[in-house]
Amino acid sequence: MKPAKIITLLALILILCMAAMPTSAHRVIVQGQVSEIQIRAYFGGGSADPMAYADVEIYAVRGGQEELYKTGKTNDTGMYYFQPLIGVSEYRAVVEATGHRGEEWVNLTEGAGITEAEQEEAEDEAGLPLTGIIAGFGYLTGLAGIAMFLTARKMKKQYENK
Amino acid sequence: MVHISDGVLAEWLWGGGWAVTAVILAYALSKMRNEDVPRLSVITAAVFVSSLVHISVGPTSVHFILNGFAGVMLGILAYPCIFVALVLQCFLFGHGGVTTIGINAVNMGVPALIAYLIFKTGAGRGIGPETKNRASLFGAIAGGVAVVLALLFLAAELLTTGEEFLETTVLVVSTHIPIIAVEAIFTGVIVGFIATVEPELFRR
Fold first, then answer.
1. Of A111, B69, B149, B174, whose CB is crowded by the most CB atoms within 10 A?
2. pLDDT over 70 at B49, yes or no
3. What is the number of domains present in chain B?
4. Strand A55-62 and strand A90-97: pairing?
5. Domain limits at A142?
6. B interface mutation test: which of A74, A140, A159 has the most B CBs within 10 A?
7. Averaged confidence pLDDT in chain A
8. CA dihedral over A130, A131, A136, A138, signed as positive or negative
9. How far does the CA of residue A30 sit from the closest CA of chain B (Å)?
10. Which residue numbers in chain A have pLDDT < 70?
């Protein structure tokens, strides 16, 4: 072999070696995460009507510190969507419309989805509160009794004074 | 719509609401007589459950308030009626908020008292079967006006949170048109009925 040929061959091997390991120079990190959080706002009391076009404020919670991350409005079906920040897993969503206000904490590390049990509980809360109605009537009867008792005592006192 | 939730209003506003409520409540309760109690309780029960009756209007959901009806039927006692109904609605149904019970009572109770004045002035003292139509008409006016006033109160308070008064008013009043109409008719019909069968109820 001629020396020139050997040098060419060595150079070729060197180039090949460099081309074969391009990734070793920069470490690439790929992270996966849920890209959208869905907020649903609706009225309780049996009808579950959506809170449409309500103001939404999303607060990102970083190390116990809250900061306003996004503001917007729900759509006609009471939904609002936002992208979570990478590295922030806790959010507080506040929905407000003409004096009505509700809030919800979303924590991605605890599983952002709503479990079946949670959904059932929410539907129970949004349903017609029959026990509440019955309890309310009970309280009213009791209050009426107390009021009757107090006014009767007042009447008796007036009668005695006369 | 008219139940303001916790955390919407500034402290001075809901605090002031409690103060006004306390004063009117104390005065109203001092006027309460033994024979008023059953009527007060029955009307309170009606006001308490009425907020569960929803109508879907456009983008929102509205419910009955019945504050004008309470005012016409109870006079000054409409205030304790609405206050008790609000307390029960808050704790049993989660309507409104705990801190805002006072201001909500102002929003619904003061219009109820104004409704009573409208009714008393319009229908006069001698309500009976022969003046039934006149009483009915003013009952209906009072029933409707009380709702509108409650909404105006709400819009005025939301001003402090940066909402536009005119915009809020137009929004809440327009969505409440069915409520205003139904409550006016309801109050008018009940007043007409009572004027026929038991006009004594209005002679207090």
1. B69
2. yes
3. 1
4. antiparallel
5. 130-162
6. A140
7. 80
8. positive
9. 41
10. 1, 17-25, 45-47, 111-113
